[in-house]
Amino acid sequence: MDVFITLAEQKIQAAIRNGELDNLPLKGKPIPVEDLSGIPEELRMGYKILKNAGMAPEEVVLNKELMTLRDLLTVCSDPDERKELKKRLSEKQLNFDLLMERNIKKPAYHQYAGKLRDKLGL
């Protein structure tokens, strides 16, 4: 048996004995299967690593910020604050549009878009 496998197994067994694995979020439950079929194969590992690290692609972060700003605008009644929110929304929208324009020029985008259209039946 490989020395690294043996060492890893010993560490796992020690963690089990010490109760370090008792409070894991999915303990006793099946691991949910992620559907990555819409993502090009060469990008899947990168997306999974980023997701597991709590990172999101820039377009996802910008889109989330856009939604938040739109929500804030719908409930804001102060004219000065609304003006500032509209300015921030315009800046974020411009950044998002430029980012998406750059992404459209990438070959992986077209492959992903094609798979997404197929999945949605468009």
Number of strands: 0
Major β-sheet annotation: none
> What is the C-alpha radius of gyration, as a whole number of Å?
22 Å
Task: Name the structural class.
Answer: mainly alpha
Structural features, described:
The protein has 122 residues and is mainly α. It has a domain at 56-122. 70% of the residues lie in helices and 0% in strands. It has 5 helices and no strands. α3 runs antiparallel to α4.
Salient structural properties:
single chain; 122 residues; mainly alpha
Produce a short descriptive summary.
This protein is an all-alpha fold. It has helices at residues 3-17, 41-52, 58-75, 79-104, 107-120. It is extended and about 65 Å long.
Topology:
Elements (H helix, E strand, L loop, with lengths): L2 H15 L23 H12 L5 H18 L3 H26 L2 H14 L2
